[in-house]
């Protein structure tokens, strides 16, 4: 039972990342009808926003410390951090330790601007083109962004530490009546799950309860009629592209301490996230979220040693096998809408 609980927690953790990326993908497809293969690169760029913020906040310069001497008796040159000069030793240290959450403040505007630039500069020219053309051009854009990151940051993963307050693991045993330290789970992975839940709820609330969101949903259902009412639906859809980029970017920021950012992580998540979108139903936001958590849990259980001993490699293909079964029985996915990508 303790292993069962741990695998469920692992599944919710993986499912959170899948659901957030798939949510952004579905927003873009549902509003613009674009199959965006550059979306995984946005997740990767979000993770590198955390790397950049950490490097900026840990920038240092050398000063001469008269109280410390080298072996010749000369004052030592020591590194000191700019943030500690500006905010004091204690506050500066706290700012550096919390660089990942602080990176969200940097990532959100940057990802929104990048989303606007992508939509206005490139993707708008492919609205009426076949989905195959959209896939090719956005996949090419993803490769370009990937190589840019590789050029500036190198090919090796860059460890990005979480705040010290969230190092270690939570002992679930006490809550469930088990022996102490039987069920341990990392704090940061729990933080990521709850953070993802809040972001998903906020996006749904924005679309469901705000006038802007209601117009967007109406435009997703019937773009031409909304346009005839005198509403500039194109500007609203451009904003939604920026919102989708921001959601995916902050998902990458918060995931940086879990998997060290590297230039290829975007493509690793992209393929799985597209499977999630297809399983959930193209254009269905609830379907994308539900499929993300479902497939995350299934992948987690398939990774158990007892399962791998019986079916070696099943953890690598379980998501695709489930996708095949679901699409054979429900061609539109779990919550897909009639007519979406069926022409």
Offer a concise description of the structure:
This protein is mainly α and 343 residues long. Helices cover 68% and strands 7% of the residues.
Please explain how this structure is put together.
The chain crosses the membrane at residues 16-35, 42-64, 98-123, 190-216, 237-258, 270-298, 310-329. It is a multi-pass membrane protein. Keywords: Amino-acid transport, Cell membrane, Membrane, Transmembrane, Transmembrane helix, Transport. There is one protein chain. The chain has a two-stranded antiparallel sheet with strand order 1-2. Strands 3-4 form a two-stranded antiparallel ribbon. It contains 15 helices and four strands. β1 (60-69) and β2 form a beta hairpin. The longest helix is centred in the N-terminal third of the chain and has 31 residues, at 2-32. It is globular, with a radius of gyration of 23 Å. The protein has one domain: ABC transporter involved in vitamin B12 uptake, BtuC (Orthogonal Bundle), CATH 1.10.3470. It has helices at 2-32, 39-57, 82-87, 89-97, 99-121, 131-153, 173-176, 187-209, 211-221, 223-228, 233-255, 265-280, 285-302, 305-310, 314-329, and strands spanning 60-69, 75-81, 169-171, 184-186. The chain has 343 residues and is mainly α.
């Amino acid at each position: 039972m303790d292993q069962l609980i741990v695998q469920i927690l692992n599944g919710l953790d993986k499912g959170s990342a899948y659901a957030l990326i798939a949510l952004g993908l579905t927003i873009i497809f549902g509003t613009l009808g674009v199959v965006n293969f550059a979306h995984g690169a946005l997740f990767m760029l979000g993770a590198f926003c955390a790397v950049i913020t950490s490097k900026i906040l840990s920038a240092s310069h050398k000063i001469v410390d008269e109280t410390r001497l080298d072996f010749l008796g000369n004052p030592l040159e020591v590194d000191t951090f700019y943030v500690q000069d500006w905010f004091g030793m204690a506050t500066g240290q706290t700012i550096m330790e919390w660089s990942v959450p602080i990176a969200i403040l940097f990532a959100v505007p940057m990802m929104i601007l990048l989303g606007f630039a992508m939509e206005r500069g490139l993707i708008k020219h492919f609205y009426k083109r076949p989905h195959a053309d959209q896939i090719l051009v956005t996949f090419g854009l993803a490769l370009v962004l990937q190589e840019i990151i590789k050029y500036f940051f190198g090919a090796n993963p860059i460890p990005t530490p979480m705040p010290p307050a969230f190092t270690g693991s939570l002992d679930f045993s006490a809550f469930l009546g088990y022996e102490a330290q039987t069920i341990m789970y990392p704090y940061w992975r729990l933080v990521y799950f709850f953070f993802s839940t809040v972001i998903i709820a906020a996006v749904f609330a924005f679309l469901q309860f705000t006038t802007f969101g209601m117009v967007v949903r109406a435009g997703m259902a019937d773009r031409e009629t909304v346009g005839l009412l005198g509403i500039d639906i194109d500007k609203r859809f451009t904003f939604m592209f920026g919102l989708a980029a921001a959601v995916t970017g902050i998902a990458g920021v918060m995931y940086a301490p879990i998997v060290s950012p590297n230039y290829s992580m975007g493509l690793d998540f992209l393929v799985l996230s597209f499977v999630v979108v297809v399983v959930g139903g193209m254009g269905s936001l609830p379907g994308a979220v539900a499929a993300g958590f479902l497939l995350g849990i299934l992948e987690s259980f398939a990774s158990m040693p007892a399962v791998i001993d019986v079916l070696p490699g099943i953890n690598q293909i379980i998501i695709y096998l489930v996708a095949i079964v679901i699409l054979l029985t429900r061609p539109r996915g779990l919550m897909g809408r009639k007519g979406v990508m069926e022409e």
